[in-house]
């Protein structure tokens, strides 16, 4: 049997899958089309490049399902999580990273591994033989997407993913803006002051909403429909759902006190998060958009403190394609019609960097077990990793399948814990305690199986 594992795509999932398989002794080839074939969102040919936010979201492994997924990946020697912590930026309890050094480190680690090689080429058809993982993410090339669609005899599902703009810090008016994380969250002063805040009065907010609604937007191509994932809605789409929607979303004013005017509570607040270690770049949190570039500059400069803002990158929009995994994949993440091919990452219908890398981690380990003739016990669905893979490979309703972030709603219920909002802290801690024990037991058993 050919003991080479081929991985299409060098994003979060492909990079993590390669790392896991190579560390287990397999020879791995990563097939990455960049930089020869570019995408709308990528800027470099680096593996593990972050194309949207620079945040891996909450790092709280006791009260947050994403933070628990961080913890599980660290326990499994996950490349993405270890590298993220190496290039961490203050973010008030979230795990944000300096995106360019992060991707450079991921690339260097993979290229330095004796079991890994990188082939820069576009794969345009489904491989007939060999062992493969397809981890091409939301920007799967047109030719490969057509090949997948032809094989599955199903319409490709798609939504539109929007990118938030990045502002040069030196162009922000700090006489208006101030530094503070919501509720002063964080263990260090850097964490407690990780976000830059721009306050709005009611009149300023209303004018901003009017401008959002009236701004010129990117037109969709013929045949495209805007099926957005709720976790990544463009701000103008949120505004269309109701004038107060943004005040209860990314512009909520709670947990913040204006350092320049402590007595007056802002009606709304726009937050920016540091995007690099130097602190020269800040991204506007939750402000992914499909407005045209000229409109973006005009509308965003209405934000108090950003009147003279200079943009390192404006927002954008791109198509995000994923398969109907509950109908197409088995519990080993293999394509039912071609079991020599696994899928991993966002193309499977998980949403977010963390979830994508996690599915890469599992796909890599599952491939190792199969290619070395070992059986791999199912990942307990009581773990963050197991809850997520169970959801996409059969737990979700196929007819209404949409991209999903990891969340405690995917976990089996616990007996003997309080339900409702008041019991949430105790309940979440019980979920994470159970998950950690079960994840460590599963990892321990897989290591024993490998030793045998």
Automatic annotation (TrEMBL):
The keyword Coiled coil does not apply. Its cofactor is FAD. Its main location: cytoplasm. It is found in: Cytoplasm. One of its GO terms (molecular function) is flavin adenine dinucleotide binding. FAD binds at residues 9-14. It catalyses: uridine(54) in tRNA + (6R)-5,10-methylene-5,6,7,8-tetrahydrofolate + NADPH + H(+) = 5-methyluridine(54) in tRNA + (6S)-5,6,7,8-tetrahydrofolate + NADP(+); uridine(54) in tRNA + (6R)-5,10-methylene-5,6,7,8-tetrahydrofolate + NADH + H(+) = 5-methyluridine(54) in tRNA + (6S)-5,6,7,8-tetrahydrofolate + NAD(+). One of its GO terms (cellular component) is cytosol. The keyword Flavoprotein applies. This is Methylenetetrahydrofolate--tRNA-(uracil-5-)-methyltransferase TrmFO. It comes from Yoonia rosea. The gene is trmFO.
């Amino acid at each position: 049997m050919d003991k080479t594992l081929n991985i299409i795509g060098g994003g979060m999932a492909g990079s993590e899958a390669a790392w896991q398989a190579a560390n287990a002794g397999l020879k791995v080839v990563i097939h990455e089309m960049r930089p020869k074939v570019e995408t709308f969102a990528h800027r470099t040919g680096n593996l593990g490049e972050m194309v949207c936010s620079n945040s891996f979201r909450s790092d709280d492994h006791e009260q947050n399902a994403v933070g628990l997924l961080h913890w599980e990946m660290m326990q499994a020697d996950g490349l993405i999580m270890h590298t993220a912590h190496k290039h961490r930026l203050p973010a008030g309890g979230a795990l944000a990273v300096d995106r360019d050094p992060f991707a450079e480190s991921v690339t260097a680690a993979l290229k330095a591994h004796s079991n890994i090689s990188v082939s820069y080429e576009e794969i345009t058809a489904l491989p007939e033989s060999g062992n493969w993982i397809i981890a091409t993410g939301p920007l799967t090339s047109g030719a490969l997407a057509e090949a997948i669609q032809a094989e599955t005899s199903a319409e490709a599902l798609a939504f539109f993913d929007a990118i938030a703009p990045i502002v040069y810090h030196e162009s922000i008016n700090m006489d208006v803006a101030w530094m503070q994380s919501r509720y002063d969250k964080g263990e260090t002063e850097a964490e407690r002051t990780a976000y830059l805040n721009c306050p709005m009065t009611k009149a300023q907010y209303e004018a901003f909403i009017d401008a959002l609604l009236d701004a010129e937007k990117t037109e969709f191509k013929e045949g495209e429909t805007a099926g957005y994932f709720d976790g990544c809605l463009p701000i103008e789409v949120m505004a269309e759902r109701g004038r107060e929607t943004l005040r209860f979303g990314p512009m909520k004013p709670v947990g913040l006190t204006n350092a320049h005017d402590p007595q007056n509570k802002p009606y709304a607040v726009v937050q920016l998060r540091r995007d690099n270690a130097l602190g020269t770049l800040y991204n506007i949190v939750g402000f992914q958009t499909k407005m045209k570039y000229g409109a973006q500059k005009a509308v965003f400069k209405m934000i108090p403190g950003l009147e003279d803002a200079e943009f390192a990158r404006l927002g954008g929009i791109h198509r995000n394609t994923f398969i109907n995994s509950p109908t197409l994949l088995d519990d080993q993440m293999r394509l039912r019609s071609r079991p020599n091919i696994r899928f991993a990452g966002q193309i499977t219908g998980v949403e977010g960097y963390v979830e994508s890398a996690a599915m890469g981690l599992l796909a890599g380990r599952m491939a190792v077990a199969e290619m070395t003739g070992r059986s791999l016990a199912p990942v307990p669905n009581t773990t963050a990793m197991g809850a997520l893979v169970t959801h996409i490979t059969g737990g979700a309703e196929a007819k209404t399948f949409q991209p999903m972030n990891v969340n405690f709603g995917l976990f089996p219920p616990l007996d003997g814990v309080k339900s409702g909002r008041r019991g949430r802290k105790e309940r979440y801690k019980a979920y994470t305690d159970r998950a950690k024990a079960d994840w460590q037991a599963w990892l321990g058993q897989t290591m024993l199986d490998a030793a045998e």
